[in-house]
Amino acid sequence: MTLEYEKRLNELENKLVIRSEQIISAQEKISQTNQVHSLWMRAGLETNLHEQINIYDQILDVNPDDVEALTYKADSLLDLGEARWALSLSNQAIDHDQEYALAYWQRACAEAALGQHDEAVRDLETAILQSPALKDEVASETAFEVLHDHLSFKKLLQPDMQDDELS
Fold first, then answer.
1. Number of structural domains found in the chain
2. I need a labelling partner for 152 at 20 to 30 A (CA). Which of 44, 80, 115, 143 fits?
3. Residue 84 placed within a domain
4. Looking at residue 123, what is its pLDDT?
5. Would you state the pLDDT for residue 5?
6. What was the pLDDT predicted at 3?
7. What is the DSSP string of the chain?
8. Which NCBIfam families does the record match to this protein (predicted)?
9. Can you tell me the distance from the alpha carbon of 35 to that of 25, in angstroms, rounded to the nearest whole number?
């Protein structure tokens, strides 16, 4: 009888330890989620590009594979004229998630800034295929001004026009 009682008590203790670990893990995840949410709120309010980048770095410290943070950091870097660094971050974001349209958009912006116009148009096409609403933003994106005379870019914006009408 005592042995059976000890066995049941040990099983109960083991279950309690496992459940406690699960609760602690869940609390840590909630804390991290709250921290990241707070950082995103700060980033959205921050007007200083260097501070935005610092905030995105803090998000990436918590979650190194955060595709959105990589992409937004790339955007801030582009605004600072750091196109190569922005291209590298956009590539990382795409490596983590090939379905995230804004990463292709950011990579297209970086490529346009670096004079890689064909690559920029290809990535822009991918971004628009994945998120058609982005097509409405193309004309107002200053990073794409250098592409306005590029035939593939014109075709992307006006697919129904013939080549002779676009030139």
1. 2
2. 80
3. yes
4. 98
5. 86
6. 85
7. -HHHHHHHHHHHHHHHHHHHHHHHHHHHHHHHHHHHHHHHHHHHH---HHHHHHHHHHHHHH-TT-HHHHHHHHHHHHHTT-HHHHHHHHHHHHHH-TT-HHHHHHHHHHHHHTT-HHHHHHHHHHHHHH-GGGHHHHTT-GGGGGGTT-HHHHHHH-TTS-HHHH-
8. TPR_END_plus (NF047558)
9. 15
**What is residue 59's predicted lDDT score, i.e. its pLDDT?**
98
Q: What is the pLDDT of residue 158?
A: 84
- CATH code of the domain covering residue 115: 1.25.40.10
What is the mean pLDDT of each successive set of 10 residues along the chain, which is 167 residues long?
Answer: 87 92 94 95 97 98 96 98 98 98 98 97 97 93 94 86 57
Whole-number pLDDT of residue 164: 56
Q: Is 96 exposed, middle or buried (0-12, 13-18, 19+ CB in 10 A)?
A: middle
Range of the domain at 22: 1-45
Q: Looking at the structure, do residues 105 and 145 belong to the same domain, yes or no?
A: yes
Amino acid at the residue 19: R
Encoding tokens for residue 143? 């990073």
Is position 144 within any domain?
yes
For residues 72 and 40, state if they share a domain. Answer: no
C-alpha R_g of the chain: 24
Domain assignment of residue 116, yes or no? yes
